[in-house]
Amino acid sequence: MIRKVIAAVVLVTLLTVAIVQAMDKKTETPETTSQPSENNEGPAIGAKAPDFELKTLTGETVKLSSLKGKKVMLNFWATWCPPCKAEMPEMEQFSKEANEDIVVLAVNIDPQLDVQGFVDENKITFPILLDAEDIVNETYQVLSIPTTYFIDSQGIIQNKYTGAMSLTIMEDFTKKIN
Questions:
Q1: H or E element, residue 160
Q2: For the whole model, what pTM was predicted?
Q3: In terms of C-beta density within 10 A (0-12 exposed, 13-18 middle, 19 or more buried), how is residue 86 classed?
Q4: DSSP assignment letter at 43
Q5: Residue 128 and residue 45: Cα distance in Å, rounded?
Q6: Res 34 pLDDT > 60
């Protein structure tokens, strides 16, 4: 009887480990969407980016529609997210090297945590927007983070990237939009 219980526990443990590993591999694989999103996955590619207004860490207000005429890389992230942490240094480099017609906006979805400490530790200089009421996150229906929208100078979503991005990916996607 004890052998059966031990065998059942081992079997359940192995099954749990397999499921967790499969889920980890899925979240580590970045995906790109080049067609309109479906199944309530946020605003569609080719659609006008939903406007919003959020405060930065420094208390300034940023309104997406006020950036018309510029390309916008709109990133959703959290301080506890390993892929988000991994892409931040390259986002900082991209932000510093980008032309003045490109704006990097990072919408933090966990402002109750120490976002300023994270920014200071990682020496981030691009605008960090705080979605304290979770309104923008819900509007864009962000299901996994990091998720990044590439918005053209007319305010139209040109692409969406889910997962940690490299500098090359950021450069390639912004080159493809006008």
A1: strand 157-162
A2: 0.76
A3: middle
A4: S
A5: 24
A6: no
- Which stretches of the chain are DSSP H helices? 2-28, 82-97, 115-122, 135-139, 167-175
User: Do 63 and 74 contact (CB within 8 A), yes or no?
Assistant: no
Domains and CATH numbers, the chain: 30-175 (3.40.30.10)
CA gyration radius, the chain:
19
Residue pointed to by tokens 């995906």: 31
Phi-psi region of 141 (alpha: psi -120 to 50; beta: other; left: phi over 0): left
Q: Is the model's pLDDT at 11 over the cut of 90?
A: no
Q: Can the peptide bond before residue 50 be classed as cis, meaning omega within 30 degrees of 0?
A: no
Q: Answer yes or no: are the C-beta atoms of 134 and 109 closer than 8 Å.
A: yes
